[in-house]
Amino acid sequence: MINKNVITASSFIILAGTFFVTNDAIINYLAENRIKFYHFIFYGIPAYIAVPIYLFFNGSLKKNLKCTNYYIPLIRSFIFAPMPFITFICLENIKLPEFTTLNMASPLIASIFAIFLLKEKLNIFTYFSLTLGFLGVLFVIQPGFENFNIYFLVTLIGVIFITTTTLIVNKYHYVTTASGFFIYGGLIIHIVSIVFFIYDPIIVNYLEFFLITTASIFINAAIFLVTTALRMAQKYYSSVFCLVYLQVVWSSLVGIFIFDEYMNLFAYFGAFFIVLSGIFSIPSQLKQLKK
To answer: Which range of residues forms the domain containing residue 262?
Structure first.
């Protein structure tokens, strides 16, 4: 029987992927306008503080803020802080397909972390899932990469940062709750954004405010889901992370049904590979659990 935590963690990763895609699409639009990362974070503060406010009124805020080691979530918060800046500046300077492709290096980096830092024993299903997923991404995105761009490297640095934050949650899952990791995780970037906003304030229009609010809700929900999932996935971090590849499928579906952008034959072939990658992650998880 498959472990209940595997099902829950995998479901959270899949759902979070749809939220990340929505957020990236909105940021891609906003990055072309006058909106900077700190404007985006500042106007998204209500979505972030909704969690501690809810916990305060149900009487569990103090419990969720308690840590056995406060350095761990705060270090994670510092590592996460550059991510909004990296996302905005990269989407201003490289194409979305290249950005998406480079971000799909995260499962590969996660597997390296799992082997050397978490001491996980990967199996043939995990390697096969990773290979199928990355090949599928290349077929779907079909990036040009005609000319070298320094922002390719910046994007990869961002991938390392975000994967490191997920590793910390998985390795030190006992330090605090998922809500605690979420609240501490956004602390530094929100403080920094408030300071930057004070020096460079702007008044957004109704459409921009709606888009920022929507993206903030989705990105905060996605981060919370991923944090919860990887905190649960204590023994199968690498195999669960393979499901990140499904974001490309969600992105393609959004393109078809929202923007009327259809894929070519190679892209459909790649989407099939990605789905197979997700399917092969299941026996990978089962094999890890048996060990």
So the answer is: 4-290
